[in-house]
Amino acid sequence: MIHSEKLKQIKSLETNANSCQSCELAKTRTNVVFGSGSIDAEIFFIGEGPGQEEDLQALPFVGRSGKLLTRLIEEELEIPRSDCYIANIVKCRPPANRNPLPQESASCTPFLIKQLEIISPKVIITLGNVATQYLLETKEGITKLRGRFFQFSDFHIMPTFHPAAALRSGAVVVAQMRADFATAKHYIEQSQR
C-alpha cells in the first residue's frame, strides 16, 4: 500500500475511534488513545489499555512504563521509538486502571485489526498477560508464552512482559524483555534476507 494511502486510512480510522461510543469506557475517558508511531512500522506493540497519563495526553505508553519501553526499543531494537507503532487492545482508559472487560475489548477489536491491516507489521509484540491472552485466545500465562512466536491471522505475535511488570519485578524481568526484543529483531533481520 502506498504511504499516502496508508496515512489517509489510519487518519480516517482514528477519526472514527475518536467519536466511538460503543462501550461504557466512552463515558469516563478524557481522550481516546488511538495509537502512535510509524505507519510503515515493522514492529507493532500492543498493550492492554491506556493508563492515567495516556488518557490525559492521548498517547500510548507515556508514563513510567512507557519510558522503559522506549529505552528497550532504542537499546535492543536499535531504532527510535517513532519507527515502531504502539497501541492498546482498548482505546479508552478503564476506570482505576482495571483490566478491560470482555465487551470493552470486543468493541475496540475492529479498530485494532484495521490498524494492523493498514500498518502490516512483520512482528507484533504483545505486552503482558491481558493483550497476549486476548489476541491468542488463551488462559496460558505470559511467563510460559513469552519469547516465542505465535500465528495471529496473517501476523506473527511474540509475547513479552508488560513494562509495568518489569518495573515492579526488577532486573530479571527487564533482562527477559531485552532477550525477547532481541529475538524479534533477529526474526525481522532474517525475514529481510
Please provide a written account of the structure.
This protein is of the alpha/beta class. A six-stranded mixed β-sheet has the order 1-3-2-4-6-5, with helices on both faces. Strand 5 (150-152) and strand 6 (155-160) form a beta hairpin. 40% of the residues are buried. The protein has helices at residues 3-18, 25-28, 52-57, 64-77, 102-119, 129-136, 142-145, 163-169, 171-191; strands spanning 36-37, 43-47, 85-88, 123-127, 150-152, 155-160.
Structural class: alpha/beta
Share of helix, binned: 40-55%
**Parts with pLDDT < 50 across at least 5 consecutive residues:** none
What's the main sheet like? 6 strands, mixed
Q: Could you give the count of β-strands?
A: 6
Mean pLDDT, as a whole number? 96
Strand content: 5-15%
Query: Which geometry do the CA atoms define?
Result: globular
What distance lies between the first and last C-alpha atoms, to the nearest angstrom?
A: 21 Å
Output the strand order for the largest sheet: 1-3-2-4-6-5
SSE string: HHEEHHEHEHHEEHH
Counting H and I runs of at least 4 residues, what is the number of helices? 9
Calculate Rg over CA atoms. Answer: 16 Å
Could you provide a short overview of the structure?
This protein is 51% helix and 13% strand.
